[in-house]
Each structure stands twice: as C-alpha cells, then as structure tokens.
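Predict the holo structure. Ligand: calcium ion.
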Amino acid sequence: MKVPQIFTLFFLGLLLAVRSEVADDEATVEVEEDGEDGGCSSTSRKSEETPPPAETDLKTPQETVPADKAKSNYERTNQMVYLPTGSFMMGTNNPIIPPDGEGPARRVHITGFWYDVYETSNAEFELFVNSTGYKTEAEGFGDSFVIEAFISEKIKEDISQAVASAPWWLPVKGADWRHPFGPDTDLKGIMDHPVLHVSWNDAVAYCQWAQKRLPTEAEFEYACRDGKDDRLFPWGSNMLPKNQHRMNIWQGDFPNTNTAEDGFERTCPVTEFKPQTKLGQKNLIGNAWEWVQDWWQTEHHTGTTKNPVGPKQGTDKTKKGGSYMCIKTHCYRYRCGARSQNTPDSSASNLGFRCASNKLPEYIAKQMEEEKMATAEKARKEEL
Ligand SMILES: *[C@@H]1O[C@H](CO)[C@@H](O)[C@H](O)[C@H]1NC(C)=O
Ligand SMILES: [Ca+2]
Ligand SMILES: [Ca+2]
C-alpha cells in the first residue's frame, strides 16, 4: 500500500463507525471498526524503490528441473481438489469494511477448476528454488516487511524507518522467505508452514513452474463461500463452531499481546486445522494472506459475470483470506468477502499464496493416485 493510500484508508476508517449485524442461523456478529487500520494488511514497497539488480547466478534453462521431475526431501503438500462448475454471490451487501470494496453482492459463474488443498509451504517453495535457482524479489531488494513483535531486539536497533499508520510493520534488511522474521531467523521446524515474503511476481513464477496458475479473486471466493449465501466464513458465520478453532488468527491485544488461543502465535503448518471447506481445503482464511491474479479495484458492477478476472490494469494486486495477524479490532479480514491489496513487488511476513489450474497437472494426478494406493495398502495391512 502506498503511503497516501494508507492515510486515505486511515481517515476513512476514522469516519467510519461501522456497526454491522449479520444474521445467521448460527450466530449474530457485531462489529465496531475502531478506525485503526493496517493491522494484518501489510504495507507495500514504494514505487520509486529501485528494482532488484539483475541476477547472475541463476540456473540456465538446461539446468532447471521441471516440476514433474523434481523430487522433494519432504512430504508433498501440492495436492489439488476439483471445484465443479457453478455460480455464487460474490461480495456482500453488508460490507464490514466498505472502503475495501466488499460490496455489492453480485452473481458470478465459475467454470470448474482445480485448486490447491494447502497454502504453498516452505518445503514446496524450496523445491521450486532448488529446481530453478529462482531468487525472490525480497532477496533482490535486500529487505522485506516484518511485524515488530517478532523481530529480535538486536535487529530492531538498526531500524529507524517505520510505517506511519501501521507502526508495527518494519522493513527488515535480510528478511526473506528463508529468514521470515529477520536475518537471525530460519526455517528450522517450519518447512511445512506457508512460505512468506513472496511477492505477487514470485507467486506467479512458482505456479508457472508447478504447471499451475494463480486463482482469480472470484475463484478464491467461490471456494471460500463453499455453497453458502453471505456467510462470514466457509463453514458459516459462527467463528468458533462447537467452541473449536477452525483457523489461525490473532487473539489478545494487537499488536502487544498474542495469547495464541488457537494454538499458534505465528504461522501454523499448512495441514493444520480441520478442513475449512467440504472439499477439504485448509487455511483459506487465516494463517497466510493469499495472492490472487486480479488487479485491485474497489468499484464493482452488480451485473452477472462469468469467470471475472478483474480490471485490465492497475497498481496493486489483490490478496484474500487474512492472516495469523488478523484480529477483529485491527483487521477483520479473515472473512470470505474481505479483501486487501499490495503492489506486485511487495512482500511481508504474513503474505503467501496457493495455486489453481484449469487441468490437473499429470504429475500431480499420478502422485495423488500413488498416495491413494499407499493409504489403502496401509489400511489393509492394519486390518490384518
Ligand atoms: C533443496 O536442496 C538442499 C540442498 O541440497 C536440500 O538440503 C533440501 O532438502 C532440498 N529441498 C527440498 C524441498 O527437497
Ligand atoms: Ca494464532
Ligand atoms: Ca490463508
């Protein structure tokens, strides 16, 4: 987000004393926006920043390994599910954060497509980097945004520049996907967590290598709505059905205390929690924000559309789902209809992605078949 936009949002937020009530068979939700915005929706690079220098140590095309030949040292989490053709109401007529363009509700037809079950993990992203020599934009720029609460005192000493309207975001030198909370942190023990500090451009490159693509915003929301009308979450509007956490967000007093009642102070494994949708997708909302294909816009026509892809051009790309940093008071964006944006070269410690595809890539079909057989074989052996 560019600085002027941050201020616009901030003052709009101040003007807004939104009270929104969403009736539901499961719960009634009351929201008060306190005007402090920015929370889990991170900042963007300023457009005048110089782009990453040309890389000289990249692999030549002959040296790269295609996704169907790549062998991971970790258990794969690249499985996909098929979402059948259908239509749904995108957006809502009861927007909770109106300046984000959450409304109006409009009918959208979606052609059946394949969608990742999980957010892209550090292990999956490392396989891509091992196979291609890819360097992320954050590695090129030499820094990325990290929330202050997770930066060590030693690293913090060297940082003076914060983001005016969201002071908890700091640009940290040496923060990138391998060092998610600063140069003195690494991926030990979190290879199955979502990859962070990937820009929109990085996400596109990964999906392309994997023989996939980024989903459109409409596809994300179609999956998230899971056949229900105007509910907040995939499973309904009750955040804690049967008093159980279904996603990784922030509990406590943001940004100072994090009680982690959902079990996770930062990210959780991409396989964590019960599936959020009937088809089995996990962490669509919460954990890491997810880039989608579309350029950002906040004005939408109410007419019916088929497979909308967003505006032809823009300055920011759209992201969906909210993150482990989201809390109702600061960033009530872990809802299917919620949305936010960043410039396509931006990256942060709460922003990742997952891919979609029109066709199931052959190597994944084969892999999933083998996994199914292995599971059946294991079950058979246990019966004996
Ligand atoms: C990537 O390569 C490194 C170095 O050979 C290896 O240790 C690591 O396990 C590889 N990553 C994956 C996902 O296989
Ligand atoms: Ca949490
Ligand atoms: Ca997510």
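Residues 6-36 have pLDDT under 50 and may be disordered. The radius of gyration is 20 Å.
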